[in-house]
Amino acid sequence: MTRTLHITIGTRPDRSGLEETLGAIDAGEDVASQPSRLSIESLATFGRIFRPTNLELLEAIVEHEPDSIRELARLVDRHPPEVTENVNELADYGLIELEENGRAKRPIIWYDEIEFSGDISLRDMDVGGDVSAAP
């Protein structure tokens, strides 16, 4: 069974359904019929969350299932404080779950794939740059 996280770029974040899905997974319930959705408020936020360093972390979590953030940092050859910051951001957006493992936190990904959708208006883009300064 493939579990898909559906991500849209929207004007306001809506993580309520995601929290319910995570709770159902924790309780061992079948969540196949529950849609998992995440709305990201802007294109700039989307770019920050899915930058290459974060994608590398997601890939390492899926491939190696590390027991801690420190182990994840070793896998990607980065400093643990930097990885902790990125992992916390991913957890804040519901892309990973952090499971208490003694004093450590174990990063877990509960989905198998990510599906992106949404309409991007070139007039209303918030990309964090000042296009009026272009030559």
Features:
single chain; alpha/beta; three-stranded parallel β-sheet; two-stranded antiparallel sheet; 5 helices; 39% helix; disordered C terminus
Give a description of the structure.
The chain has 135 residues and is of the alpha/beta class. It has a single domain (4-118), classed as Arc Repressor Mutant, subunit A (Orthogonal Bundle). Helix content is 39%, strand content 19%. The chain has a three-stranded parallel beta sheet with strand order 2-1-5. Strand 1, helix 1 (16-26) and strand 2 (36-40) form a beta-alpha-beta unit. Helix 4 crosses helix 5 (80-92). It starts with a strand and ends in an 18-residue tail after the last strand. Residues 129-135 have low confidence and may be disordered.
Radius of gyration: 16 Å
* Named CATH topology: Arc Repressor Mutant, subunit A
Distance between the termini: 51 Å
Q: What's the oligomerization state?
A: single chain
- Derived structural class: alpha/beta
Mean pLDDT: 81
Largest sheet features: 3 strands, parallel
Number of domains: 1
Shape: globular
| Number of distinct helices | 5
Low-confidence stretches: 129-135
Strand order of the largest sheet: 2-1-5
Order of helices and strands: EHEHHHHEEE
- CATH level-4 homologous superfamily: Winged helix-like DNA-binding domain superfamily/Winged helix DNA-binding domain
Identify the CATH class: Mainly Alpha
Percent range of helical residues: 25-40%
Please report the total strand number as a whole number. 5
